[in-house]
């Protein structure tokens, strides 16, 4: 019996050594490949094998998500959003994951990119920040907005689109837009 245990210990030691050798060789190969691709002006992700691996991983991640959820947002169609139970479930899931609920309109024309926000400024009293729209800054000037920020005991931060805002301010921005009241588009104090 001691002979078998001794042989097993030797085999485990040899296996550990071979694994470390293989890791070293793999790292060496990867570094040589990176250098070669850098000299050719390509990245390591340009290879067909890497693109195929990336596509496979993306499909696996997507397959693991519910049908209406992407890796970044929870997306509903207009019809799904009209169902209160479905919308509630999606909203709870988005809140748990810390992402947004987006409603996709299949009949809407394709957007060409982010559009400027109609909200002139938002005040985040907790963080002490006044988020001012770039269009408003161009119209009234930075000096005047800095005065407004000083009155609110906040620092000034400029945004152009809703994507420039932190997540909690995007939610506030959405509430202001949903109100569709021109007076609330001036300021978002709540």
Write the layout of secondary structure elements.
Blueprint: H1 2-40, H2 48-64, E1 73-77, H3 78-82, H4 84-97, E2 100-104, E3 121-124, E4 129-133, H5 134-140, H6 142-151, E5 155-159, H7 167-179
Parallel strand pairs: 1-2, 4-5
Antiparallel strand pairs: 3-4
Structure description:
This protein is α/β, with parallel strands linked by helices and 190 residues long. Among the domains are: 48-104, no CATH class; 121-179, no CATH class. The protein has helices at 2-40, 48-64, 78-82, 84-97, 134-140, 142-151, 167-179; strands at 73-77, 100-104, 121-124, 129-133, 155-159. The strands form 2 sheets. It has a 3-stranded mixed sheet. A two-stranded parallel sheet has the order 1-2. The radius of gyration is 27 Å and the shape is elongated. The termini are far apart.
